[in-house]
Fold:
Amino acid sequence: MAYVPDHSTPDPAAAPALAMPDWAHDHVTALIGIPLRIALIVVGVALVRMLAKRAITRVVQRILEPGDGAREPARRGGRGPAVLHRDRSRARERREQRARTIGSVLSSIVSVVLFVIAVAMVLDQVGIALGPLLASAGVVGLAIGFGAQSLVADYLSGMLIMIEDQYGVGDSVDLGEAVGEVEQVGLRLTHVRDLNGGLWHIRNGEIMRVRNDSQEWARAVLDVAVAYDADLDEVYRVLEETGRTLREDSAFEGVLLEDPAVWGVQSVDADGVTVRLAARTAPMQQWAVTRELRRRVKEALDAAGIALPFPRRTLWLRGDDGADGREAAALR
Structure:
């Protein structure tokens, strides 16, 4: 009987050659699919980041950098640009600062958000559970939030101040105790130089209210006191004529936005009558206009013979003999 070899048993030497294709077939997803998906995630995130940064740059430049002052649209009946009439270089510096700051912050936020999303997607592809990581990150974020809530409030307030254009470099503001000119606006601090030369550093989160004297227009208000028996119609005429003369002066061209108007009697007391004169001016020019109006009004009242009020006092006289009789005299 002849021996017939059994070919059903594989040759040990050929076993590795047969097993390698089977292993590669079984792990083709891990060898090719996962790295390919990770590469697609990285490329997709980089592309989204690039598009987002370009969009942020275009939007910020379009909103915050309207162009040269000569091409800026007039507002309020052609009375000039709305912000910082007095110094276009400061206005340009202000817009550029806001544009750089807001653009940088928005770009950083987009980069951080996209980075976190990319890391989470990559970890999911390699099979790492995200639940414990998210829970740990939530606890750490909560602790940091409690510890740095004032810092977060400062940064959020700084962003809103810039986006809403509440004030900027060169503005004259009243922030409570700090009253003066803004020298720098950051995300955390605002720097204000007061009248005495002191530099205030104010946290943006502590600013509760702002009075800005530099935006769009201002108003010069002058209260003129005249004698109690003065002719008010003549007083009105003198004040209105003085205001028109001031506006026609070439030195104040573009400073007065309208003819000064007499608002009427502001108060009546025993010493005299107070009449209010007001005029709309360019920003930051209200004080200079008020000083010049005060000088010209004084000269006009003197020329018209209108007396200024003098304090009235009452004098009581007692007789030499100490009698109860008294005489009162009103002195002017």
